[in-house]
Amino acid sequence: MRKIFNGNYLEWRKTLIKNKYKILLSFLFLFIAVVVTVLSGHYTTTKGMATSTDLFLDNFGPIDLHLIFSYGFYLVVGILILFPLFYDIKKFHLAISHFSLIIIIRSIFITLTHLKTPVDAIPPGFSGVLEIFVMQNDLFFSGHTAIPFIGFLVFHDSKIKYVFLALSILLGLTSLLMHRHYTIDVLSAFFIAYGTYKLGQWVFNKYNF
Question: In degrees to the nearest 10, what's the CA dihedral of 140, 204, 132, 135?
């Protein structure tokens, strides 16, 4: 098992201090992204107009997998933040920034597509303060699929990428079996996440971030 701080605390601390302003900016970006996603989610909750037939949903589920749906997402966000913080500090601000960018891009997409959450969808099971993120009709595209896939792309040079890829597939399938998303929401998430990652790479490299 690799040692915490990648085996070198002094080097970890030096890099953390060196990138402190980039890290602060990335968290500011994250704060903006959270505000945007809450506002857009509340908007979609009032705007869902119609449901649609779906080949997968018509033949499978709904199955109550809310524990995987909720705690799996917590796990993704936790790893996305804690892994670079302790094991790949040079990418810490980039991981937060890519995470924030995919949230903002998704917020734009969901406000443009006014489909309604399937009527037989299983409640997601978020509780406490995270209930503010429980919205309806925020369908296209699936954040449960796209966010862990962003982790796969950001940490493409580390074995942790396989964990993110597995979680992306697992949570995408869980979203379908719970009827929280249509098939197109999940499948498109991989392509949109890749495009968002490349966009982020271009922007962050251009401004030496």
Answer: 0
